[in-house]
Amino acid sequence: MSFERILEALTPFRIALAIIVLATATIAGAWIFQSLGYIPCELCYKERIPYYVGIALAALTLALSRRGGKNLMAASFALISLIFAVGSVLGAYHSGVEYHLWPGPSDCTGPLDHAGSINDFLNQLKTVRVVRCDEVELRVFGVSLAVWNTAIAAFLAGLSALAAALTLRPPAAPARGASPSRS
Questions:
Q1: Which of 75, 72, 59 is nearest to 20 (CA)?
Q2: How far apart are the C-alpha atoms of 73 and 107, rounded to whole Å?
Q3: How far, in Å, CA of 162 to CA of 86, rounded?
Q4: pLDDT tens across 44-103, in order?
């Protein structure tokens, strides 16, 4: 299959559907791991926000793809790309925190000294499980979920940017000697 045929197969509808499927599968995976007892940290929860927004916007773009409006679709894909680029940056930041390349937010890294007294601290320990952002809770194929998120969100950002560009490109000219089609 030629590169040109591949680009023709990448319709806005198919790309929006692929974004929805991949983003939803990513979030579903996070929920499954959470249901198995892997409690997310605060940064993990923040990394989910671009997926929720991106899925909703991709669903809107999917609907737009059936109605036309190239400029609106392209703008929607560009916004999806930006949203997932932010998600990738959040994942990269969290990855750096996990690998101790830089400090993380004080509410999920550093010393646990927020209790007013020892008794308060002991009471908190009975009811609260502290999930630290700078410790890897789970590795899949040797890589933390924050690293996986970085890669998946970057892929979705790139796919969305490609969709925006493809949506705006002019229609291909008919090949030499071919008769123009009538629509």
A1: 59
A2: 39
A3: 17
A4: 899 999 999 999 999 999 888 877 778 888 999 999 999 999 999 999 998 988 888 888
Alpha-carbon span 49 to 54, nearest angstrom? 8
Q: What are phi and psi of 144, to 5 degrees?
A: -70, 160
Rounded to an integer, what is the distance from CA 9 to the centroid of its chain?
23
* Token pair of 38 as six digits: 């892997």
Confidence (pTM): 0.78
C-beta of residue 140 within 8 angstroms of C-beta of residue 122: no
- Spatial neighbors of 56 by CB under 8 A, at least 6 apart, are none
In the chain, DSSP assigns E strands to 139-140, 143-144
